[in-house]
TrEMBL record:
InterPro entries for the chain: AB_hydrolase_1, AB_hydrolase_fold
Basic and acidic residues bias (residue ranges): 1-11, 39-49
Sorted UniProt keywords: Membrane, Transmembrane, Transmembrane helix
Keyword Transmembrane helix included in the entry's annotation: yes
Residues annotated as transmembrane: 53-72
Designated name of the protein: AB hydrolase-1 domain-containing protein
Lineage: Eukaryota, Choanoflagellata, Craspedida, Salpingoecidae, Salpingoeca
UniProt KW Ribosomal protein keyword: no
Source organism superkingdom: Eukaryota
Region called Disordered, residue ranges: 1-49, 394-450
Amino acid composition bias (Acidic residues), ranges on this chain: 405-417, 426-435
Domain AB hydrolase-1: residue ranges: 129-284
Length: 472
């Protein structure tokens, strides 16, 4: 047995080397498919794990792309507020339900007609802020005491407006108790707010109302409701209420202007509202894709409110409720028309889009002009035609003021597009641009529009004040 084992050992040790290598190769071939299968499974598992990571990166990029403009716009608005918003409560007055309205006049509140000058109140058109009419206010200041104000939710008033009523909604105006109208964005609500505002601010009454565009319906409503407060009305590019009232007949289609308003103007404003909230408007202004109308020349503030979502939302509400305002005016015309003793004048400008950018279609402009003629006949008002020159050869402003060489088109030289802080340095207490409350006044330009309106309005203000004095 021992010899047999020794023989096997000797036989195994003497096996050819080629056979051993062949056996090892066969063994490797049997193991290779198993290794390949294991490596394939590992690659599949790694791919499955990599897929969620890639989608998370894409989702994160999209979220950043959406929210970064919002953050930048919010920071820009806060920065601009330091230069544009009044830093004194003297400009703000409570009119009920926690709502505070902004009002500013060219001199102290109690002078007015006591020094022989009439008091003029400028009513901003829909979509505009009171600050945009500052150039006109300053142009009229030498011959009249001029006031500008923002309706609820607009401009400066929008920063201090709370629409939720307090615990006791009736005890909000001192000893006089009166329920509060809730028709936000309508002539009835605006007239009631203005009635309380003039009293809370101690504005010397009566006032001559100078209103623009759609807000002329609010001025007319106020003049008919509070006729003792009004010395006269000057309606610039007024809108007749029949254009915005739906057809009386159920089967008849709405008027063409009504279809244009609710088919084009309101949806466009809702898009501007969304764009302002999302910060897209600021990016568009920075890139020169969007522009603001020159109008009265205060393009610095125009860009600010174009980027302000709360202001654009209030504008959308006013536009949406324009038919309600028209219906309110139609009803009050039947029961309490404008007194014949109230002086009334109508001014129509040659360039409609310069002051009414929402009237961009020629057909709508033609319908509007027909309504102006109808209104002049109904009111027996004098109609004055004013020719407006184009400012810088264009109705849109996308160039900064002199010294703006940063390419952001905002006139402040800091590259932020909408930034209105170029109005001045908020910490500068020795500058002539500071007002009595330490606020830095926005930089404005006096445009040909302001000069033309000044020449047309001044004699009408004097005539309205003279007629009112004769009637007393």
């Amino acid at each position: 047995m021992a010899q047999d084992k020794d023989a096997d050992v000797r036989h195994s040790t003497h096996q050819p080397k080629q056979q051993q290598e062949a056996q090892q190769q066969r063994e490797q071939e049997r193991q290779q498919p198993q290794q390949q299968r294991e490596q394939g499974q590992e690659r599949e598992q790694a791919g499955d794990e990599a897929k969620p990571v890639g989608w998370l990166n894409v989702i994160g990029f999209v979220i950043g792309l959406l929210f970064l403009p919002i953050v930048l716009n919010s920071a820009g608005l806060q920065h601009e507020a330091l230069a544009l918003l009044p830093n004194s409560t003297a400009y703000f007055h409570a009119v009920g339900y926690g709502t505070q309205l902004y009002l500013e006049c060219t001199d102290t509140p109690t002078t007015g007609t006591k020094d022989g000058r009439p008091t003029v109140l400028i009513e901003a058109d829909v979509g505009m802020g009171a600050e945009e009419y500052r150039p006109l206010m300053e142009a009229l200041a030498p011959t009249a005491r001029v006031c500008i104000y923002d309706r609820a939710g607009l401009g400066h008033s929008g920063q201090f407006t709370r629409m939720n009523p307090p615990t006791d909604p009736y005890a909000y105006m001192g000893s006089e108790i009166k329920p509060r109208g809730d028709k936000v964005g309508t002539a009835e609500r605006a007239a009631e707010d203005l009635h309380w505002l003039l009293r809370k601010a101690n504005v010397s009454l009566p006032v001559t109302l100078v209103s623009f565009g759609l807000s002329t319906m609010t001025s007319r409503f106020y003049s008919q409701l509070y006729e003792d407060d009004v010395a006269g009305i000057i309606l610039i590019n007024p809108v007749h209420e029949s254009l915005l009232t739906d057809s009386v007949s159920v089967t008849a289609p709405p008027s063409p202007f009504y279809q244009f308003w609710y088919g084009s103007v309101v949806p466009a404003q809702e898009l501007r509202q969304l764009s302002a909230f999302m910060g897209w408007t600021r990016l568009a202004l920075m890139g020169g894709v969007a522009h603001v109308p020159v109008g009265m020349g205060n393009t610095t503030y125009s860009k600010h409110i174009a980027c302000h979502g709360d202001h654009q939302r209030a504008v959308a509400v006013e536009m949406l409720h324009a038919n309600e305002t028209a219906s309110q005016l139609t009803i009050i015309n039947q029961f309490k028309p404008l007194p014949r003793t109230t002086p009334r004048h109508i001014i129509v400008t040659s360039d409609t889009v310069a002051l009414m950018p929402y009237l961009s279609q020629p057909k709508a402009v033609a319908l509007w002009r027909d309504g102006v003629g109808q209104l002049a006949r109904e009111l027996g008002a004098e109609l004055v035609e004013v020719t407006l020159e184009h400012h810088r050869g264009d109705n849109e402003h996308n160039l900064g003021a002199a010294g703006d060489n940063d390419g952001d088109n905002d006139g402040d030289g800091d590259g932020d597009g909408c930034d209105a802080s170029g109005a001045g340095d908020a910490g500068d207490d020795g500058d002539d641009n500071d007002d009595e409350f330490g606020r830095v006044k926005p930089r404005v330009e006096s445009t040909p529009v302001v000069h033309a309106l000044k020449r047309a309005i001044q004699p009408l203000i004097a005539a309205a004040d003279g007629e009112h004095q004769q009637q007393q």
